[in-house]
Amino acid sequence: MPDIFEITHKDSAGRIGRLVTPHGTVETPTIMPVINPNIQTIPAKEMPGFGAQMVITNSYIIYRSRELKEQALSSGLHSLLEFDGPIMTDSGSFQLSVYGDIEVDNAQIIRFQQDIGTDIGVPLDIPTPPSADWDAAKSELAITNQRLMEALELNNDSPMLLAAPVQGGIHKDLREQAGRELGGAGFDIYPIGAVVPLMESYRYADLVDVIVSAKKGLPSSVPVHLFGAGHPMVFALAVALGCDLFDSAAYALYAKDGRYMTAEGTYHLKDMEYLPCSCPVCIGHTASEIAASPNRQELLARHNLYATFAEIRLVKQALREGNLWELVERRARIHPRLLDGLKRAVTYADWIEQFDPSSKSTYFYCGPESTKRPEVIRWNTRLERLELEGTVLIRPGGRVKHESEYDNVLHFKPPFGAYPLELKETYPFNAEVVNVPDHESLTSALENTKKLIELNPGAEFTFVYRQSWDHPLIQEICQMVSHSWSV
Ligand code: GUN
Ligand code: ZN
After folding, report:
1. Domains of the chain and any CATH numbers
2. From the CA atom positions of the chain, what is the Rg in Å?
3. Among 37, 59, 389, 399, who pairs with 89 as Cys (CB 3.0-4.6 Å)?
């Protein structure tokens, strides 16, 4: 069977890819708007106008309604929704987790999804909540995985692609184990499940743990869906960690609550004097017009969709330019808990590093978290290969007296530290950094420099530093080298 997913571009652990489904190929990362088959406030057929390439709906809602069920079985899901593109269907697991009991079992809902012509079907997994302890999460995971394996067998001869939700609660070992077990079984799509409660309570650091753990278990070549992630403020981070698909019920749920989404946070419409967006809704109306309109909810939902797709295009553009991580760092300023997510993400820099193309666009220093970026981590390892002999001058920007008399000249640039001057114009040392380095940036640079000096005991070092730099490691380095002075 040809691969249904092809990765075409990479940046950080993110990628742009092509996903082939029975109803056409989509370019990822992409968002599937959630369509309620009962009330299509914005009809599925209008979704491409916002930038949607595929949609998602709930097969259990269709199954439960006699009318919808009959129509879906006789004319097919695509005719029911009047949508020709790829459609993913969820299984009713969410209803199961909320109501505890549903009228369908795993085999029935898989067969139903096949029968109505779903492009991507989902078995009846158990979305284990974050509150579940390890034992509870482990036993629910065993049931989920057993149902997934049953679904795989039932789907043997079907054109339907099969999604295998990776569960495990907030237990990193279980998420990784689930990823490994399912990843080896040959499903088509891997949603990371039960993350909605984490996002609703702003637990972005836990969200990062869950994503990275699942990704560590899964093969890097498979498409990954972050189930229930529809707020544009998380797209950059989630894509940079390797998520390819998102679904948004949020555009409609937020609209119902009178909330106006932007990639930089959410507003309550009632608090808005101005609309900071240029979509057709926001150009055509003032905030008070929308608030007073009988179509308020629909207008907000439309704006929310435009804002959602604008952000995914921005994420893709950043990825193509190789500066997705800078966008992640910018978005992390939206909310302190998102910044916690970024801080957790940089603890996985070693893992991200293996996917990050080693040469790309200019590194921009965006603050202390930038010192933990893969480029900096990579130099900390690469400098081990630098063998220095004779005299070595380490100096900040600007030539010093008698510079040409040294056997080696290294440029000291925070947060990297000392590197051969010849590499000044090459990536990542052509980085755009602040002229006044902060403490974290100096720490990183001085630690790397110290390591380089320790690794080359035969060389004779001279260290020149700026008077304005106030850092305890400077004195330490001065004691290790033959000569030092400040400029
Ligand atoms: N929608 C949001 N989260 C989940 C999940 O974990 N499983 C399923 N099937 N649907 C979801
Ligand atoms: Zn708008």
Report:
1. 5-353 (3.20.20.105), 368-486 (no CATH)
2. 26
3. 59
